[in-house]
């Protein structure tokens, strides 16, 4: 899975596509090194942080967590990002595993 427990929450590895047709989570993909990534698409352009803001909004809505509990902690100017989700790591792992299990895998 593309997430790991971290101090105060979880870290989620994400591959973001900006200027897409729709805002959506598309499934699990693998990087060239084999690491799993959550593939996400947003309609916002990758300028002035708009795509990053759209990503965090999409994750908050899809996962049912407050937007204030999400932060990009790595890759702010890259397509590959690391997002920190604040909260109890064990509870978040349980919640996200069930939500991500429904997404397609590539």
Q: Which helices and strands appear, and what pairs or packs with what?
A:
Elements: E1 3-6, E2 9-17, E3 24-30, E4 36-41, H1 50-63, E5 70-74, E6 80-86, H2 89-101
Parallel strand pairs: 2-4
Antiparallel strand pairs: 1-2, 2-6, 3-4, 5-6
- Secondary structural class: alpha+beta
Regions with little confidence, pLDDT below 50 for 5+ residues? none
Q: Biggest sheet: strands, sense, closure? A: 6 strands, mixed
CATH homology superfamily: YggU-like
Please state roughly what percent of the residues sit in beta strands, choosing from under 5%, 5-15%, 15-25%, 25-35%, 35-45% or over 45%.
35-45%
Short account of what is shown:
The protein is an alpha+beta fold and 106 residues long. 25% of the residues lie in helices and 36% in strands.
What this model shows, in words?
Strand 3 and strand 4 form a beta hairpin. This protein has helices at 50-63, 89-101; strands at 3-6, 9-17, 24-30, 36-41, 70-74, 80-86. The chain is of the alpha+beta class and 106 residues long. The relative contact order is 0.27. Strands 1, 2, 3, 4, 5 and 6 form a six-stranded mixed β-sheet that branches. The chain starts with a strand and ends in a 5-residue tail after the last helix.
Keywords for this entry:
single chain, 106 residues, alpha+beta, Conserved Hypothetical Protein Mth637, Chain: A, 6-stranded mixed β-sheet, 2 helices, globular
